[in-house]
Amino acid sequence: MASAVLHETLHTGQKMPIIGLGTWKSAPGQVKDAIKYALGIGYRHIDCASVYGNETEVGEGIKEGLGSDPGLKREDIFVTSKMWNNKHHPDDAEGALKSTLKDLQLDYLDLYLMHWPYAFKRGDDIFPQNPDGSLQYDYTDYKDTWKAMEKLVEKGLTKAIGLSNFNKRQIDDILSVAAVKPAVLQVECHPYLPQNELLAHCHKNGLVFTGYSPLGSPDRSWRKPEDPVLLEEPCILEMAKKYCRSEAQILLRYAADKRWLPVPCFYVFDFSLTEEEMKRIGGLNRNRRYIIPLNTVAGKSVPRDAGHPQYPFNDPY
Fold it and tell me: Is 0.70 topped by the overall pTM?
């Protein structure tokens, strides 16, 4: 795979591999081996986050992967991490990134994202709660958080900074104050939720677009029996049979061709979909969002953060 690694070029000049290894929901005790294996077969982009709770293992995997291949250097690997919501206060930004770097055993990141546009109460509790189970919010303006993140680039702690789960209006808010332009937007994206307008807005403004949950997150814990399953769509099953590939590989090939830059862990560049097949998959759009954080409040499951004024999914723009 190493000889076939394809890239998108960030406005910083960095080469960001199109397919990355996502570490969300990776089981404890297995992440290190997954990282080592991925680096061994040619993956060069590792996507992680402090809230995933596994960056120490990720760091061990990177260290051992580099140690087992004399030809592989740190600069050959693109490592992304994300600032969690309880570290949005400008005074907390540098400490949050330094903590991630310590866990990953790295001197710098290639990309550091603001995980969500809204903030939680400052402190070490990643999900600070009120007595009724609702989250304790903070109202730090994400533009102030962004200005603090810019200083992290100046100090060499990360080569680029970007956004995750921001809507179009919020991206424009950041662009209006940015001295260091966001390099990447990472959001949920799959044929049920193609994000066409957001994708076009990113490309217009020079942001590389990265899509998470490109398979529709079929293993999400809050999945309902009646929810449509992307991997079971007839056209996806038909193409998988035609190309002797898994349904997941069909969806990832589609995502790569659409420049969605998916972040799972499959190889998809040894076959191609036809223009007609691309259109058929594109026709699956249901405007269906699956990754909506939920929380239990007074015994009921509700959207966890919809009450925050900076919650991105309340605003269609």
Answer: yes
